[in-house]
Amino acid sequence: MTESPHSGLLGSAPTRRTLLKAGLVGGAGVAAGPTLWTRAARSAAPAAGVHLSYGADPTSGMNVSWSTAGSVQAPRLDLGLTPDYGLRLDADSVSSLRVDSVYHHVDLSDLRPGTRYYYRLSHDGGSSTRGSFTTAPEAGESFRFAAFGDMGVADDAARNVNLIRQQRAEFAFVVGDIAYADEGGMGTSRESQQHFGVWDEFLTQIQSSAAAIPWMTTVGNHEMENGNGELGYNGYRARFRHPGNGAAGGQETYSFVRGNVAFIALDGNDATYEYKRNAGYLGAAGDAWLEMQLAIFRSRSDIDFILVGFHQCAYCTNVAHASDGGVRDRWEPLFDRYQVDVVINGHNHCYERTHLMRAGKPVREAPRGSTVDTNDGTIYITAGGGGASAYPDVLPKMSYYTNAQGLKIPELTDYRAVGDATHSVAFFDAHPRDAQGRATLDLEVVASDGSKVDTLTIGRTR
Ligand SMILES: [Fe+2]
Ligand SMILES: [Fe+2]
């Protein structure tokens, strides 16, 4: 394995959070910080793989990321309330293992809520790439978001990207197995099973959506790249930026609040009993962080729903991977105690949804098309139909969970409410409380051909 020739210069460049005073936008130009990349320009090509992610506060923070085919001079972002821009910000640039591409990031903060910003990405000697995004408004408005995992690079994956645009999602929550750069998926792949160039194909595939709305990603087992950092996450970290407010010891956990919904991203590789390469690296400290987040969010009067996303399934009947006893043992008691409303997983390449669950048992039925109240129980969704090759959907009377010894322990499938094998994306419409104090989260799962897979009205009353 050889390192990219750029890694010595840029591989350890720290993330620099650029304080952007929104009041200055549209006024005099401001250049922040030193230019980090000063080698002679190698590429006149424009920015590629442009993608966004929220900062810790979606009303004021946005990360803008892109790549160039090689090293470039003075990569930068111009920003403004109009396409006249007005603010110029230098990018943080990092390289990654066995690819020539260089990844550029600008972390914007202190933006105005609910405001459209125009950006232009450029470097010396290259043509520019333009785009725009809108920051999250202050609470009180309805909004739509997409959730799914296991996308990869494929025709159905590209169709799902179009679907996310057509459905007017305001952001995407991606629960791992992103580009499948590590084909083996156990974190032990040989070089012949590693295709790090597919990251760029993936970022090109999603740009039509991700350059306009944030894609909030979490890691799956296929992000554990053997030989690429202690956890194997260096390839992922080179390409994605996150809120940076998660458990100490990793960058893969984070939380953010959009309107009346709190989102928590966890690293399922830390808890799984299936492929244990990274199991326990956050451990009790990670769980303490999770409990603190849950306690804070459940006590906040402005938050109705708590949605937790991670890769491996707590409840899924699909016999490919079925359920993971590790994520149950570590996190399910916390989800019960703090009444988490919805858990989103992937890993099994299908769609599934449970009835309302408490203490490992279905406590209330939630058939397709019904209205339920998540004060009564948590709904577990497998949204693994993002585009990677689908697993056949066969509803067995018995499925299994993987236990701490890695054994497949048979169990009943009475928790399953809905299942579907086609590629699909789960969309949620979050609505603020009505006059009776009841907030709703409307689930609509749409297949990549546009057909409806599942609907559910999820309510919570304070
Ligand atoms: Fe997957
Ligand atoms: Fe997976």
In short:
The chain has helices spanning 7-10, 155-166, 198-210, 234-239, 283-299, 325-337; strands at 17-19, 31-32, 48-54, 62-68, 76-80, 87-90, 92-95, 102-109, 116-122, 129-134, 143-148, 172-175, 215-218, 254-258, 261-265, 305-309, 323-324, 342-345, 351-354, 356-358, 361-364, 371-373, 379-383, 398-402, 408-412, 416-420, 424-431, 438-447, 452-461. It has 462 residues and is of the alpha/beta class. It folds into two domains: 7-134, Sandwich (Immunoglobulin-like), CATH 2.60.40.380; 143-461, Metallo-dependent phosphatases (Purple Acid Phosphatase, chain A, domain 2, 4-Layer Sandwich), CATH 3.60.21.
Give an overview in words:
Residues 49-135 form the Purple acid phosphatase N-terminal domain. 55% of the residues are buried. The protein has two domains: 7-134, Immunoglobulin-like (Sandwich), CATH 2.60.40.380; 143-461, Metallo-dependent phosphatases (Purple Acid Phosphatase, chain A, domain 2, 4-Layer Sandwich). The protein is globular, with a radius of gyration of 21 Å. Helix 5 packs parallel to helix 6. It has helices at 7-10, 155-166, 198-210, 234-239, 283-299, 325-337, and strands at 17-19, 31-32, 48-54, 62-68, 76-80, 87-90, 92-95, 102-109, 116-122, 129-134, 143-148, 172-175, 215-218, 254-258, 261-265, 305-309, 323-324, 342-345, 351-354, 356-358, 361-364, 371-373, 379-383, 398-402, 408-412, 416-420, 424-431, 438-447, 452-461. The chain has a seven-stranded mixed beta sheet, covered by helices on one side. Strands 14-15-16-18-23-19-26 form a seven-stranded mixed beta sheet, covered by helices on one side. Strands 1, 3, 4, 7 and 8 form a five-stranded mixed beta sheet that branches. The protein is α/β, with parallel strands linked by helices and 462 residues long. Mean pLDDT is 91; it is low at 1-41. The longest helix is centred in the middle third of the chain and has 17 residues, at 283-299. One fe (ii) ion binds at residues 177, 185, 220-222, 311, 347.
